[in-house]
Amino acid sequence: MPRLFTALEIPRNAALSLSLLRGGLPGARWIDVENYHITLRFIGDVDGRTADEIVDRLDRIDRPEFQLSLNGIGSFGSKKPHSVWAGVTQAPEMYALQAEIERICQRIGLPPDPRKFTPHVTLARLKSSRVDDVVHYLAGRGDFHTAPFTVTRFVLLSSKESVGGGPYLTEEVFPLHEARAVSSFASMELQPAKSML
């Protein structure tokens, strides 16, 4: 069975903005634009029955669409950097979705994800990059940001075991529902009546 994980897709405009960050860092293996994503929960290698159960449970998630944007860049691995990433805005709806997926995975019997959820888009994997080169690369691109975009679904992706960074295959798509508009009547604050005197 291929390795599975849940993720948010990056729309074309934001992906093109990310692609402009490629280059200028010796020892970097850049991720292909079509493989950009935000991992919500790494599931790993599971048998077919478990995979079917995961899909069935994920299909029942009922959460609203939400807005995200990408901003800032950084690296993982301070003394020996191993990847460069773009940051993601703090959206409560994204954290709630990720937490629900984590609960589902644990209920099915998967071990808890040992890593704290740190939303990001991996831009490059680093093999032999020097710390100074990484610091120099990051310093020139720290003001990176994209326009906000609406997240309308999350996906179940698979990857081949031997290759990190893609290509990824979309196994299942799970739509989010349109955010319900709050009725203007319910959202109106009651104003005290003005005195006629």
TrEMBL record:
GO molecular function, one term: 2',3'-cyclic-nucleotide 3'-phosphodiesterase activity
Top-rank taxon, per record: Bacteria
Active site positions, chain numbering: H37, H120
Pfam families (UniProt xref): 2_5_RNA_ligase2
Gene3D superfamilies cross-referenced by the UniProt entry: Cyclic phosphodiesterase (3.90.1140.10)
HAMAP family per UniProt: RNA_CPDase
Name of the featured protein: RNA 2',3'-cyclic phosphodiesterase
